From TrEMBL:
SUPFAM superfamilies: PK beta-barrel domain-like. Residues 26-175 form the MOSC domain. Residues 1-14 have a biased composition (Polar residues). Pfam families: MOSC. Residues 1-22 are annotated as: Disordered. This is MOSC domain-containing protein. Coiled coil: none annotated. InterPro entries: MoCF_Sase_C, MOSC_domain, Pyrv_Knase-like_insert_dom_sf.
Amino acid sequence: MNIEDQSASGSVLSVSRRPGHSFSKDVEPSITLLEGLGVEGDGHLGVTVQHRSRVARDPTQPNLRQVHLIHSELFDELAAGGFTVRAGDLGENVLTRGIALLDLPEGTRLHIGPDAVVEVTGLRNPCSQIDAFQPGLMSALLGRDAQGGLVRKSGVMSVVVKGGRIEPGDEIRIELPAGPHRKLDKV
């Protein structure tokens, strides 16, 4: 997919949430996004940072990780490497198909279903909990680009710009920010 093609779209394959802080999330028939907060009923819901290690450093930081999206094409790649990963296993809220999430610039807005809009804030930085889930998985979620730079493959983080209910089958439309575009970095 060419990220400059603003008519490009993908779809939602699965949605997940879980109250409290655990590695994986439960697949649900639908989830509701709340403007400025995140996923209703999810442990990462909030205006300020909810990730435990980040709260320990500074609980007043803005929550730039309200909604976690992963591209299902990653699961295909992991399966080819001998890993079994299902929807919700890596803690994502939205599993997508047909969008090169990692190639989107910072500030891209994703219109999901009839109402919801999230703004991409950055890349999820894989942590050591991934190897506790499946040994060797963390290495599989990291790669190198042609210049030798680190590539984080474990999805993107976003904030909710406009709330709404989303469910599997919903279309995802891409709205790129005004240029120049900034490459995603970890958040």
